[in-house]
Amino acid sequence: MRLVHTDALVLGDGAPILDGAVAIGDRGEILDSGGAGEVLPRHAGAPIERVRGAVLPGLVNAHTHLELSALRGRVPGGSGFVPWVEQMIGVRSELRPEDDAAAVERAVDELVSCGTVAVGEVTNSLAAVRALARAGIVGCVFHEVFGVEREPLERRVAGLQAMVAERVGTWPTADLAYSATPHTLYTTHPDVVRRLLAAARERGSRASVHVAEHPAERRFLEKGDGPVAEWYEARLKLRRDLLEWPGESPIAFADALGALAPDVLAVHLTDALPAELDLVARRGATVVLCPRSNLHIETRLPPLLALRAAGIAPALGTDSLASNASLDVLAEARALHDRFPAVPASDLVGMATWAGARALGRTDVGRIARGARPGLIAIEGDVGADPCAFVLKNVRAPRRWISRRGETVS
Ligand SMILES: [Zn+2]
Fold first, then answer.
1. How far apart are the CA of 275 and the centre of ligand 1, in A?
2. Sheet of 138-145: strands edge to edge?
3. Which end of the chain has fewer CB atoms surrounding its CB within 10 Å, N or C?
4. Ligand 1: centre distance to CA 287 (Å)
5. DSSP string for residues in 98-163
6. Residue 289 alpha carbon to ligand 1 centre in Å
7. Helices (H) and strands (E) in the chain, counts
8. Residue 61: what are its φ and ψ, rounded to 5°?
9. Starting from the edge strand earliest in sequence, which strands make up the sheet with 315-316, in order?
10. What contacts 93, CB < 8 A, 6 or more positions away?
């Protein structure tokens, strides 16, 4: 057992403690935490490390697509979602498989070096599963499917387990929960959406779906036309008269399909209206925001103030490197801090830690609490009166692991 005595202990799930201390067991488990004046005497004789700065729990990046990491800096944004996807498909087709594989390894290294302990990884190829397990990163792997034609999509879903066996082999760790999950409500047949959500729920797993990300999504779901319908015709050669749409808003449709629930991560909600957010809150839905990705693709931010007014405490994700400059979820909190200065810094740091852990269904990470194994990171410097503001102002300062989760993974 060892002690860390720090100028500020940022708990993740509560107000930071100035002049705090934490006792850590051999496997990275938190044995005790609180004010240094109380914690240190309780464990007299144990070795003490002094940190001049802030200590915080490992970060939780609740929405990533690591298989797109080779696209970093290569997909221009600013023209909306459909042009971005079109560019992404073009750039991706020029990459070699070995570029992809190397970029996934580098991406996992980046997650570790910025202090990440857990992810919600959305994947088509399962390319990052073994690398995540090797790095001791926990969380959820959302095996994503899409397709608007029911029968081919059902065949794809039926083949997912064989794909896992072929690409991953024996699942490397129970600390990465697996579930099949729909891409979006306009790219995945509604019968399959319902079934995937029900299957995940039955197994006690989370699912994840992109919802209300952009105006073209709303236009298609409500009216059946606009950039998404045009893209279906041009790219997928789907005949306009065969396209189906529900005639409902993204949020109403999500609700009809059972996608507004605590065990489904509703990712983005950038295009959600205040009245729709009230419904999201009433359903107790889990919300994940990806502000820097939204800025890159749509040049707009998620409606953080309206979300908070509705009583929603969102988690944060970086989305992929095809729409973001880094995989640092604390930089997402900083991006919100810059544009919503009235939101308390401690809430924003909580979004990158404890809210993310809850989104992924875990209580053992994202907070400094007895029995948790969150991994601890230190950011050195003068913490001042608001340690969370200090953390956000210093997102570019070096971070150092104080303790890791002490996992043994195959
Ligand atoms: Zn995404």
1. 24
2. 59-64, 116-123, 138-145, 176-182
3. C
4. 13
5. HHHHHHHHHHHHHHHHTTEEEEEEEESS-TTHHHHHHTT-EEEEEEEE-BSSHHHHHHHHHTHHHH
6. 10
7. 17, 14
8. -100, 100
9. 207-211, 264-268, 286-289, 315-316
10. none
Residue 410 has pLDDT above 60, yes or no: no
Q: How far is CA 110 from CA 104, 116, 365, 402, in A?
A: 10, 9, 19, 17
382 C-alpha to ligand 1 centroid (Å):
36
pLDDT at position 241 is 80
Cβ(268)–Cβ(289) under 8 Å?
yes
Full-model pTM: 0.97
Q: For residue 173, what are the CA distances in angstroms to 18, 176, 177?
A: 37, 6, 8
Compute CA distances 4 → 15, 358, 359, 381, whole Å.
18, 26, 28, 16
Longest Cα–Cα distance in the chain:
76
Residue with tokens 């971070």: 399
DSSP secondary structure of 215-240:
HHHHHHHHHS-SHHHHHHHHHS---G
282 confidence band (pLDDT: 50, 70, 90): very high
CA separation for the pair 206, 180 (Å, rounded): 9
Token pair belonging to 48: 């003490």
Distance 21 CA to ligand 1 centre (A): 37
At 345-360, the pLDDT tens digits run 999 999 999 999 999 9
What is the mean pLDDT of the segment spanning 181-191?
A: 97
Check residue 407 and give its pLDDT: 46
184 secondary structure, DSSP code: B
Measure 123 CA to ligand 1 centroid, in angstroms.
Answer: 9
Q: What is the pLDDT of residues 37-85, one digit of tens each?
A: 999 999 999 999 999 999 999 999 999 999 999 999 999 999 999 999 9
- Which candidate, 199, 175, 145, places its Cα nearest to that of 360? 175
What is the Å distance from ligand 1's center to 33 Cα?
A: 36
User: How many whole angstroms from 210 Cα to the centroid of ligand 1?
Assistant: 6
Task: State the chain's mean pLDDT as an integer.
Answer: 96
pLDDT tens track for 316-337:
999 999 999 999 999 999 999 9
Please tell me the distance between residue 409's alpha carbon and the centre of ligand 1 in angstroms.
Answer: 27
Reading the block at residue 203, the tokens are 């197994």
How far is the centre of ligand 1, averaged over its atoms, from the C-alpha of 185 (Å)? 13
Q: Two tokens at 161?
A: 């387990």
What the block records as the tokens of 368 is 């400094």
